[in-house]
Amino acid sequence: MTPKFIVFEGIDGCGKGTQVELFCNRLRQNNIDVARTAEPTFSCVGGMIRDCLSGKTSVSPEELAALFLADRIHHNASPFDGIEKLLSDGKTVVCDRYYYSSIAYQGLECPINWVADMNLSCRGIRKPDLCIFLDLSPEESLDRMKNSGKALDSMESDLEKSAAIRKRFFDCFDIVRQTDNVVVVDASGTAREVSERIWERVGSMFNPL
């Protein structure tokens, strides 16, 4: 089977990390070689992004959007563990967040079409074969994060902002509807129930196994 590039997206607290892990395990059970990755990366630019998100460093919304773009180009092109290298090695790549998150999150404070254009028109950024969006209400997402015992930052606990980001994701999907394969999955219920919903929707991509 030709290796595929799969992206998982969703608002904070939707269960994305759990579903990425379950999905990777499902692929491995079906004898598919998988590489799991995420953004921001652990490159020097990824470290700068983490400093910005934690408040350690202050940058403008435009600078942050540009940092994500630079990190994404590196994520694609790294000769050691980049997306292109992993795919050429025969691995299906499963990524936690990609340019959809930039368009949704940075698109709140920057013009959304500007953020979209600089990502979608960049030759160094590969288009995913599939984006799986885990759709969960901000209220349910917040409850999950509280129940996990995680210390929440101001953005994660802001229901109004989470609702705006969720809307921005759907604005993003409107922008890419002619070019990208986006599957929206109801992320409510148990982790196992959500995992089965995902496989019911996209498992045929990996047949015959």
Written description of the protein model:
This protein has 209 residues and is of the alpha/beta class. It has one domain: P-loop containing nucleotide triphosphate hydrolases (Rossmann fold, 3-Layer(aba) Sandwich), CATH 3.40.50.300. It is built from nine helices and five strands, in the order βαβαααβααβααβα. The protein has a five-stranded parallel beta sheet. The longest helix is centred in the N-terminal third of the chain and has 17 residues, at 61-77. The chain is globular and about 45 Å long.
Question: What's the topology here?
Answer:
Elements: E1 5-9, H1 16-29, E2 34-38, H2 44-54, H3 61-77, H4 83-88, E3 92-96, H5 99-105, H6 112-120, E4 130-135, H7 138-147, H8 159-175, E5 182-186, H9 191-202
Parallel strand pairs: 1-3, 1-4, 2-3, 4-5
Helix pairs in contact: 1-9, 2-3, 5-6, 5-8
Q: What is the number of domains?
A: 1
CATH architecture: 3-Layer(aba) Sandwich
Strand content is 5-15%
Q: Sketch the major β-sheet.
A: 5 strands, parallel
Determine and state the CATH class: Alpha Beta
Mean pLDDT: 95
Number of contiguous helices? 9
What radius of gyration results from the CA coordinates? 17 Å
Instruction: Estimate percent helicity.
Output: 40-55%
CA distance, first residue to last residue:
8 Å
Q: Structural class of the helix and strand makeup? A: alpha/beta
Q: Which fold does the CATH topology refer to? A: Rossmann fold
For the secondary structure, the number of strands is 5
- Contiguous uncertain segments of 5+ residues: none
Query: Which sequence of strands runs across the widest sheet?
Result: 2-3-1-4-5
Order of helices and strands: EHEHHHEHHEHHEH
Provide the CATH superfamily.
P-loop containing nucleotide triphosphate hydrolases
Basic shape = globular
